[in-house]
Design brief:
- This protein is an all-alpha fold and about 625 residues long.
- The protein has one domain.
- Helices cover about 65% and strands about 0% of the residues.
- The chain has 24 helices and two strands.
- A two-stranded antiparallel sheet has the order 1-2.
- The longest helix is centred in the last third of the chain and has 56 residues.
- It is globular.
- The relative contact order is 0.19.
Length: about 625
């Protein structure tokens, strides 16, 4: 797929902007109209499809016009730019900001009393009050490019684009700080990018592997058969998608462990095979432990309706401790960063994406802007600082989970700031204005953080190193992708809903109503700090601490705190069986044939991933191009 060790030329930036725009619009249309959710697992299927065909089109250029052909580093640049665009332009991230602009006004009724209780706390410069503009947005059959609509939406779009660009751009800067510690010093495995990296590497022999094509044929055939079954039900179905198994455990106390699903997605099994063996084991083991815990609690007659045993808060406490451990483990690196920030860059750091001084100053300036923005919205200064710091703690932890554990789904449901800060401080003490302002950030922490862009940014630095690409130009490409994706998200989503009507989509109702219903409850039923939830955070922190200590002291210790953090997640509810299968296969291969057998088997599992994505992703493209009324979704 190209020549190695080349610079990233201007053509890659231009092509990257075109492809990320195409990919962002494709993703938003799939989620807005067909509810296909291509961003619910990584790597993103839409990105794999596009980069696959870019590689195919690049082959004749390599032979006929080698100077024009894209090199390895440029193809990776396109891949990361599109991945960042998918991470931002989706309904579990920035697109969810749009319903917040008008929902509280359009759906206010005498019964819900939103006008009296909520309106006064919402910033008018981020919301839409114009009845005509909102009516056509919700009812559709219009064009967004009417001067009236553009004029009313202009300020909220520009304000959110500016904030979100800084918000996601800060993640790029933090990733640049973490790069040397996690990539060079700790040498983390980055499981998610192993298949895409091999596919794009011209020296990997990826497409010459017979095992890869066997895996591709198996998963691709399954998708093809199931897609035919979708349109022609008389064709048999291969049961790989999620299925409830609650009916097998209908009696108490076993029913307490429900709901529970089983699935056999080939691409998840393939990605699970890339995960470190002990982390793969920890993921499904701790999930099973939570199910056993629920059964025991039910058998003893303890009520769980009040939130007990507060699994999400346990995981939240463990996350804070694990984050602290990673800071401590990297203390020498961060000490070096501080020294370089104060005294200036050294020759040793000349190859970093930016000098540490520039990076740290950039992060501080970005935080200052974001704090000012939040205070202008109505947040108290202390709350804005705590809220933003906690959000980036979550972002860094998710990134660590991706680059070390490699689980392709990491939703973090119930572990967001909006949920846990009221539990910690009490909604009564936080006040309505702080709570209202935090609800306007529903888009940043929807409870489903699978498409989070920060892991892609750090993975990008790793891939750039593999291609020997210019880190500085690569970082510029990522920042360009961030700003472009933020603007395209608003433009594409508003174009779609002024055409079809936001009322036609449950997404606008859900992402609009959820934060305001929560805010209504906080205002009408203010709560003191939840001692049960706080205790659970403490217990989770202790468990996380012990797991990290045991892992550091005992080489043979098989359990990792990252698995504990994900134990009650949507990912494990639905994909535990895939992870278990991956673990069993990897354990058996390593036990039987060692590392050589594992390396030999890798292409087969890469093929499972690619076959699912290319055949399944092609159906997603066909559905959009032909504007089909129904579309087959190979995942979910």
């Amino acid at each position: 797929m190209g020549n190695q060790f080349k610079e990233i030329r201007l053509r890659a930036f231009i092509l990257g902007l075109f492809l990320l725009s195409l990919n962002a619009h494709w993703t938003l249309v799939l989620e807005s109209i067909w509810y296909a959710w291509p961003t619910d697992a990584v790597p993103f299927s839409t990105v794999i499809v596009l980069i696959f065909f870019v590689g195919i089109l690049n082959v004749p250029f390599q032979k006929l016009f080698p100077k024009i052909a894209l090199n390895y580093g440029e193809i990776i640049t396109l891949y990361i730019m599109m991945s960042i665009s998918s991470g931002i332009a989706n309904w579990n991230m920035l697109a969810a900001a749009i319903p917040l602009a008008g929902h509280a006004f359009w759906f206010a009724t005498p019964e819900n009393e939103w006008k009296q209780l909520i309106w006064q706390y919402l910033p008018d410069w981020l919301t839409i009050w114009d009845y005509q503009v909102l009516r056509d947005y919700y009812e559709g059959k219009s064009s967004f490019f009417s001067s009236q609509y553009v004029r009313v939406w202009a300020w909220p779009i520009l304000a959110w684009t500016a904030f979100s660009s800084v918000f996601f751009g800060t993640m790029v800067l933090i990733s640049a700080l973490l790069r040397k510690q996690w990539v060079d010093h700790e040498r983390l495995t980055f499981p998610v990018i192993q298949m895409p990296g091999a596919m794009m590497n011209p020296q990997s022999g990826f497409f010459q592997s017979r095992l890869m094509w066997i895996g591709f044929a198996i998963s691709g055939t399954i998708v093809l058969i199931n897609s035919m079954h979708f349109f022609f039900p008389q064709i048999p179905y291969v049961p790989v998608k999620r299925q409830h198994i609650d009916h097998f455990f209908a009696e108490k106390p076993w029913s307490a462990a429900m709901p529970m699903k089983i699935s056999f997605y080939p691409f998840i099994i393939g990605l699970g095979f890339m995960m470190p063996l002990d982390l793969c084991f920890s993921a499904w083991f701790f999930y099973m432990l939570t199910r056993i815990e629920l059964v025991v609690i039910n058998a003893t007659g303890i009520r769980t309706s009040s939130g007990f045993p507060y699994f999400h808060q346990q995981m939240f406490g463990a996350m804070l401790v694990v984050f602290s451990f990673y800071l401590w483990n990297g203390r020498q690196h961060f000490k070096h960063v501080i020294i370089q920030t104060i005294h200036g860059p050294s020759q040793k750091d000349a190859l970093e994406p930016l000098s540490y001084r520039t990076t740290v100053i950039g992060i501080l300036l970005c935080f200052t802007f974001m704090i000012f923005f939040c205070v202008w919205m109505g947040m108290s200064l202390w709350f804005a600082i705590v809220y933003l710091l906690l959000f980036y703690v979550i972002a860094v932890t998710i990134t660590r989970i991706r680059v070390e554990l490699g689980l392709p789904v990491h939703d973090f449901e119930g572990m967001d700031c909006r949920t846990n800060l009221p539990l910690m401080f009490g909604s009564r003490n936080l006040g309505a204005r702080n709570l209202a302002s935090s609800m306007m950030f529903k888009w940043a922490e929807t409870g489903d953080l699978n498409p989070h862009p920060m892991p892609h940014q750090l993975e990008g630095f790793k891939m750039a190193d593999q291609a020997h690409a210019d880190r500085r130009r690569f970082m510029i490409a990522m920042l360009l992708a961030v700003v472009s994706s933020c603007f395209i998200t608003f433009l594409s989503t508003l174009m779609t809903y002024y055409k079809i009507g936001a009322n036609s989509s449950y997404l606008t109702r859900w992402y609009g109503s959820s934060p305001f219903n929560t805010l209504h409850r906080h205002i009408t039923l203010p709560q003191a700090p939840n001692l049960g939830a706080i205790s659970a955070m403490g217990i989770g922190g202790i468990v996380g601490f012990l797991l990290m200590i045991l892992r550091a002291k005992l080489i043979w210790w098989p359990l990792h705190a990252l698995g504990y953090i994900l134990s009650d997640s949507w990912a494990m509810y639905n994909l535990w069986s895939c992870v278990l299968i991956s673990w069993l296969l990897k354990w058996a291969i390593l036990k039987r044939g060692g590392l050589k057998a594992f390396q030999s088997a890798l292409p087969f599992f890469w093929g499972l991933i690619l076959g699912d994505f290319i055949v399944g992703g092609s159906w997603l493209a066909i559905g959009v191009i032909l504007d089909l009324r129904q579309i087959y979704v190979f995942y979910l």
